Amino acid sequence: MEHQTIAIGLPRAMLYYRYRTLWRVFFQELGMETVASPPTDRDILERGAALSIDEACLSLKVYLGHVSALLGKCDYILVPRISSFGRHRNMCTRFEALPDLTRNVFRGSGQEFLTYEVDELLKKDERSAFLEMARTLGCSAKAAGRAYKAAKKAELCHHKERVQRQEQLYRREGMKVLIAAHSYVAEDPCMGKAVTDYLKGVGVIPVRADLVDRDAALKRSRELSPTCKWEVNREILGGVAMHCGDVDGIILLSAFPCGPDAMVNELITRRVTGVPMLNLVLDGQSGTAGVETRLESFIDIIRFKEGKL
Questions:
Q1: Is this prediction's pTM over 0.90?
Q2: E strand map for the chain
Q3: Fewer CB under 10 Å: which end of the chain, C or N?
Q4: What is the pLDDT of residue 306?
Q5: Edge to edge, what strands does the sheet with 76-78 contain?
């Protein structure tokens, strides 16, 4: 009897943009297949919105649309629970609740879900979580250990390469705008990608506040807020502190109604001075005309400030 490869579904939303290399390499090293949902489109967004309560943030609605797109196309859908990386290093509560929420929304689908839990405040580190997840899939501890080591190395190399490419952008001639946003907002086709595409189209160089050395960013974040407890927001704060003097403007890009972003973006507008800033909140409404109008006005403000208009 032919052995069938286990297929793990990866929703192309939320933490996918942060951990995709780690997940793919880990499962591939264990001889499994990974299946990512297709890039976000209006159908996925509308499907997710129909599955969500109205008060859910746009990012969560998109996520549920991606889970729906994977139903029946894989053996398991990976939905991790990531709570904290230590004291004052928390994730938004949506990431802690995600496995429970997803299983409830799709409880009648017959789909199997796979999870792992990272909560270093409860002594649950990432490596142990991956080894435990592999054990539930029938893999040996030795094979899981090797797979995690290879996956972690690949993840760190991939992030380092992306950071190096960003650093090169700061040395290029031309107007540069720093985008302060979560990766799942900045890189999603129905959210931030439209913003970066527009900027590139008018000759502006978009750079990302989150694509920095994470340890260095966490340290620099204290310059803007010594008490911010959300890990990824702290990384973005650190990226802003590191590069606000290297750009012509800053766009605070978030998905409505993200609580942590609302607080942190307000903090940035109060603490960072001397550089034009646009607070752009995306709500998932169809069409990009309104966003493009605000971006056009923002670029004009920068040019006026620099005496180029």
A1: yes
A2: 7-10, 33-36, 76-78, 81-84, 112-114, 117-119, 176-180, 205-208, 249-255, 277-282
A3: N
A4: 78
A5: 33-36, 7-10, 76-78, 112-114
